[in-house]
Amino acid sequence: MLLSYNRELKERAREMRKNPTEAEALLWKFLRKKNLDGEQWYRQKTIGNFIVDFHCPQRKLVVEADGSQHFSEEGRDHDAGRSGLFEELGLKVLRFENREILKNVEEVAEKIKSA
Description:
Endonuclease, Chain A; 22% strand; globular; alpha+beta; 5 helices; four-stranded mixed β-sheet
């Protein structure tokens, strides 16, 4: 299934790929080059009107690395809305705190692998 996307976000996604957070860069080492079960992953992928941190089309999986802005009430509400839209598209969403990724990226990779 081909997912639609907002072309106006493409340049922003490109900028985000060039300047990842520390947690995103670390997790990308585990996902890139088909390191996780030989599946293709994309980072800062535009889906609809949003940019997701990581997307695996074969698994229909979105992985988000959440920083502190996601823990406010407004941030949680925004994330819940995004996740709901992705789920309507048939995508599963996994969220990990940046701290969790930085502290134990191997465990996070295992959770993604078993999802």
